[in-house]
Design a protein that fits this description.
Oligomer: single chain
Shape: globular
CATH topology of the largest domain: Rossmann fold
Largest sheet: 8 strands, mixed
CATH class of the largest domain: Alpha Beta
CATH architecture of the largest domain: 3-Layer(aba) Sandwich
Structural class: alpha/beta
Length: 435
């Protein structure tokens, strides 16, 4: 009864209490006149009405509210954005505040009004968005954003520090806590926040390679699929991981002759089982590598060392042996590139030539298809952003995947590959996070 009433009653006998309320009072008198069947004793009851003990809402311990900032990306032609309205809505419904810089989502066809409907607060400047406790981005901070880095900032974005010494030094000097998307790693070895952009970059690599093979773009003038009586383009893909397998998918679909090299036999076997003779697979060694790339119209670099610098598979001295005006698309440019002559380019100026070989080395390839990329990325980051908002630094203590993503903390490097790249001392992330 007390579950359904505002007031609680102190009764010595429940049945007697029931008997005090019509229509049960009449029934109780009838039962008392039948002593041969059973006897009901109804001693006097002293009861009083007492209000149920209530706790004032204001005194309930509330979860801490996290202030989350979403600045607009300012890297050259970078049109992705760190949060979608769906993720913002999940954050605001959980009681957090989200500051969105005006126009942050325009490049991904997301309007300011979409963020406002999701509960975000619009701010006019990058400085206001960066003033939050947790800042969520897509690309690493560039020089113009270094001024916003500070000791009480938790930064969640792609960083690729092993190939970016200036940024590493600034993060350490500022004391910023930085978590890199690309090094968040689950117990089974998966890189869940790198996978979606690797899928996009892999598929794009073949598309842009096909464009730059055109003579008007500096290439050999070769059609990917050929025509009856003329051979298709010879495409060589270095790496059979997420990038490589997605590049192969598009290249096979375009009708090219495709060869994939990797040192992992299991990955090659998987591709062989899927394509059933539509592509060739080879274990990567110096002989197989040179034999393949010297006959290639298009080479796609899809090498990954998680969190570390990519090795040079193609050296400068190999370039003169390649076909004149062949194209190299080095997707590994974020990790320093797997070609010695790789240097980062932009969507505004995507290519350059070395020894007659066209190099396409755009460091943010998925930025060319920002809407697809933004939503694909948020599908993966959503759960981790919510976890950081709810728990702050404690999230890395309870979630090994996030802890693995920690790259810098209070002026120290916490990721081995970054420390090794620059000869710095590495401290254990779990030890650093202890109170």
């Amino acid at each position: 009864m007390t579950d359904n009433y505002t007031y609680a009653f102190n009764f010595n006998l429940k049945l007697h209490a029931i008997g005090r309320t019509p229509p049960f009072k009449a029934i109780l008198k009838l039962l008392q006149k039948m002593p041969t069947i059973f006897t009901i004793n109804t001693p006097p009851v002293n009861y009083e009405v007492k209000p149920v003990m209530r706790t004032k809402i204001s005194s309930i311990a509330r979860k801490p509210t996290m202030l989350i900032g979403l600045p607009k990306e300012i890297k050259d032609t970078e049109n992705r954005v760190g949060l979608t309205p769906g993720t913002v809505k999940a954050l605001t419904q959980a009681g957090h505040r989200v500051l969105v810089q005006h126009g942050a989502g325009e490049g991904s066809a997301i309007l300011d009004a979409d963020y406002q409907m999701a509960g975000a607060q619009l701010v006019n400047t990058a400085e206001e968005a960066w003033s939050a406790q947790l800042v969520v981005k897509v690309k690493e901070p560039i020089a113009a954003e270094y001024q916003y880095l500070r000791p009480d900032l938790l930064l969640f974005t792609y960083l690729h520090l092993a190939s970016n010494k200036p940024l590493t030094e600034v993060l350490l000097a500022s004391g910023t806590t930085s978590i890199a998307y690309e090094t968040v790693q689950t117990e089974d070895g998966q890189l869940p926040l790198l996978i979606p952009m690797s899928e996009v970059a892999g598929r794009m690599a073949t598309q842009v390679g096909a464009i730059y093979l055109q003579r008007s773009h500096g290439g050999r003038g070769v059609l990917m699929g050929g025509v009856p009586g003329v051979a298709p383009a010879n495409v060589v893909i270095l790496g059979a991981g997420i990038v490589g397998s997605n590049a192969a998918r598009i290249a096979v679909g375009m009708g090219a002759q495709v060869t994939v090299l990797d040192i992992n036999h299991a990955r090659l076997k998987t591709l062989d089982d899927i394509y059933r003779g539509q592509l060739q697979t080879r274990i990567n060694n110096s002989h197989a590598l040179t034999e393949s790339i010297y006959q290639a119209d298009l080479v796609i670099g899809a090498v990954l060392i998680p969190g570390g610098r990519a090795p040079w598979l193609i050296t400068h001295e190999m370039l003169p042996q390649m076909l004149n005006r062949a194209v190299i698309v080095d997707v590994a440019v974020d990790q320093g590139g797997c070609v010695e002559t790789t240097k980062p380019t932009t969507h505004s100026h995507p290519t350059y030539e070395v020894e007659g070989i066209v190099h396409y080395c755009v460091a943010n390839m998925p930025g060319a298809v920002p809407r697809t990329s933004t939503f694909a990325l948020n599908n993966a980051t959503h759960v981790y952003v919510l976890r950081l908002a709810e728990q702050g630094l404690q999230a890395m203590c309870t979630d090994p995947a996030l802890r693995h993503g920690l790259n810098t903390y209070r002026g120290a490097v916490t990721y081995a590959a970054v420390a090794e790249a620059f000869g710095l001392k590495k401290i254990d992330a779990a030890t650093a996070l202890k109170p």
